[in-house]
Write a structure and sequence with these properties.
Structural class of chain A: alpha/beta
CATH superfamily of the largest domain in chain A: Aldehyde Dehydrogenase, Chain A, domain 1
Strand content of chain A: 15-25%
Number of domains of chain A: 2
CATH class of the largest domain in chain A: Alpha Beta
Strand order of the largest sheet of chain A: 10-9-11-8-7-12-13
Shape of chain A: globular
Low-confidence stretches of chain A: none
Helix content of chain A: 40-55%
Distance between the termini of chain A: 59 Å
Radius of gyration of chain A: 24 Å
Largest sheet of chain A: 7 strands, parallel
CATH architecture of the largest domain in chain A: 3-Layer(aba) Sandwich
Mean pLDDT of chain A: 96
Number of strands of chain A: 16
Oligomer: homodimer
Largest interface: A-B, 66 and 66 residues
């Protein structure tokens, strides 16, 4: 059995690799035509898709999946339309492949530059939501990569059906269907085989909870883009505009508390604490936020509970906020260095020098001045789309768009140059 | 014993990580002053250095190291001067840290861009030449990174002495000495501990033979920049300038045959074969090159021996050249895809369309038109220096200079923007 899983997974990965050269060479018009066909296919075959999705829903109910999980699994007409719309947005993005950068003439007359090229084969490992199948595949195809998708076993019929529609659109546009594959093996060991397929897959992107990502990173022989967690901070400086700071804190905590770029800890300069903390606490409490504070916070804000050491490193993903009064911006940056997750931190200040120093010295995938942490998102930052957020620094740091699914090769144009 | 090695290695790596924030924040003037101190220190303490090197040389002779290995190990006044000169060249390079890229205004007024930042802690694993200690450390310091160096055990006294001089220069310039460390543990297990220190080291760069690199890549829990081998090709197209092609082939094969960017296989369009092959063969034979050819080559070039299948994938690093006549440029590109190593390939042609297609479609860290493969080198391509060449695509592809030792974070300047 084990051998069969290995053989089947390897066959899919090998086919993806074989398709990589053709998809890498394809021009933008052909890739866009295939993407348009994918969108049309999803819309046109939505009844069939919903039928396949029903099999997953029934199996999920029988297995006793939670209502929340069942909801994430469900495909409705609106959700299928959203997937199709998402693909059409990718069509509108500029094709990163073939861009030439830094072309310069060397002293010997050789023209040297770099050309943007696809990475090759991307492996995506994700959990229940079937829309990831279409979203991720569209970004990989647009950036000239093959993709091997391994979704949750509970979504296998939905994912396989979506992939079939995408593959048909590739074939209809003279591109290899194998540039998009869903692993049909729901056996857990299929992931292990995929993570060992270093001859076929160039990069693994896991999308899901911290547990999934750690387990993938531990086992993989292939480079992995990691996104652990988002313990995001806002530091309210002594001379912040307090009204602005309140608005930013409420947005960062309340607008969507269950996501990785929501604020989890608020740091307040001691000179601002007395004026600002009661103001922000009143507003946050109005929105149902539970506050857990340092002793000084608890003194100034009666409704705050005392925070424990554990609160400082916690990603609540909920309407809970840790609050700490700090003696200086340096103390705030030390706190972030110690408890942060390299995800997103913001300063609220009117002082230019401190704003610039915070931006320079804070080690995070996005550092903001006077703006909400909720902007750490590929769409919001202008990438057009994102395939994930990296919180480690190798290859990509922060939201990954189409460019982050590419690399560059050196190119050189000469007229007979030799090395002396 | 094993525990002791683990504790000692971890202590060095932890200290490097602790030093990383200070070296990352240091401005260019301070880093350059430390680098100048390193160069001065190497020159001023050359007698002491040679004394420490003598210990390695004596141990090496006693251990029966080959004359070639002993020569690589030897430090002379000239070689010490070269190390110091190399550091001074790094001073002259622009500091990549702090560069702001792609700063653009979003529709909501948020200014979003990227800022170049150091990676953190770089681990270098290398073989006998002690100059790597100084060269690699200078590039890491200039790019704001801490570095942990693990050289060959046969060079331990030399490497430790060089590192001491570099550390003294850091301290003298109010930078943490621990930003540069040489692992003093010569125990083989020290490498394993280093490769598992993922909490402290961000990137591993192995420098040495394919065996070292494969073993490091296999064991490492930390991302590794890989450079396997260079099976570099020149394709002489049907309408190449034959004199230019001869000059390029001789340079690529003969100028320094023992390096990774030397040509190993020559591909010749069948329409050029009769005119070109005898010409180039005569010249290469004059330079002592042994030719191993396909049947058509052997027919046209009497001195060529028949090539075996194995010859096509071999990195000779010697005055031997595999030669194959191909029916078309597509056949040449198929050959490269099958036997190449993603290192360096060149086309010699006067045809613009074919030159551009070769550049676009050949998957290699450097693709050249009408120039020698020997240009795949950080200095030659204008990076100023190189810490190695990557033949895989994640994070860097091709020669790695200062920029490739950095990444970018997103930065955003707002005036109260919140997410709707």
């Amino acid at each position: 059995m084990r051998t069969t899983v290995k053989d089947s997974v390897d066959a899919v990965c090998r086919a993806a690799k074989a398709a990589a050269a053709a998809i890498a060479r394809a021009d933008s018009a052909r890739k866009n035509a295939a993407l348009a066909g994918m969108a049309t296919g999803l819309r046109g075959r939505s009844d069939w898709l919903k039928g396949e999705n029903r099999k997953d829903m029934e199996a999920g109910k029988a297995k006793g999946l939670s209502p929340a999980m069942l909801d994430r699994l469900l495909l409705t007409d609106a959700r299928i339309r959203q997937m199709a719309d998402g693909i059409e947005e990718v069509i509108a993005l500029p094709d990163p492949v073939g861009e030439v950068l830094k072309m310069r003439r060397r002293p010997n007359g050789l023209m040297v530059g770099r050309m943007r090229i696809p990475l090759g084969v991307i492996g995506i490992i994700y959990e229940s939501r079937p829309n990831v199948t279409a979203d991720a595949a569209a970004l990989c195809v647009k950036s000239g990569n093959s993709v091997v998708l391994r979704g949750g076993s509970e979504a296998i019929h939905s994912n396989t059906a979506i992939a079939q529609i995408l593959r048909d659109a590739l074939s209809a546009n003279a591109l290899p269907a194998d540039a998009v594959s869903v692993l049909s093996m729901t056996d857990r060991s299929a992931i292990d085989v995929m993570l060992a397929a270093e001859d076929f897959i160039d990069l693994i992107i896991p999308r899901g909870g911290e547990g999934l990502i750690r387990s993938v990173a531990e086992k993989s022989r292939i480079p992995v883009i990691k996104h652990y967690k988002g313990v995001c901070h806002i530091f309210v400086d002594e001379d912040a505009d307090f009204r602005q700071a309140v608005s930013l804190c409420v947005n960062a905590k309340v607008q969507r508390p269950g996501v990785c770029n929501a604020m989890e800890t608020l740091l307040v300069h001691e000179k601002a604490a007395q004026g600002f903390l009661p103001m922000v606490a009143a507003e946050l409490t109005k929105h149902g936020v539970e506050l857990r504070g340092c002793p000084e916070t608890v003194r100034l804000v009666p409704q705050a509970k005392p925070a424990t050491e554990e609160d400082w490193g916690t990603e609540y993903l909920d309407l809970i906020l840790a609050v700490r009064v700090v003696g200086s911006m340096d103390a705030a940056m030390d706190h972030i260095r110690r408890y942060g997750s390299l995800h997103t931190e913001a300063i609220v200040t009117r002082d230019h020098a401190r704003a610039m120093r915070f931006v320079r010295e804070v080690d995070s995938s996005l550092v903001l001045v006077n703006a909400s942490t909720r902007f750490n998102d590929g769409f919001q930052l202008g990438l057009g789309a994102e395939i994930g957020i990296s919180t480690t620094k190798i290859h990509a740091f922060g939201p990954m768009g189409l460019e982050e699914l590419t690399t560059t090769k050196f190119i050189a144009f000469g007229d007979g140059q030799v090395r002396e």
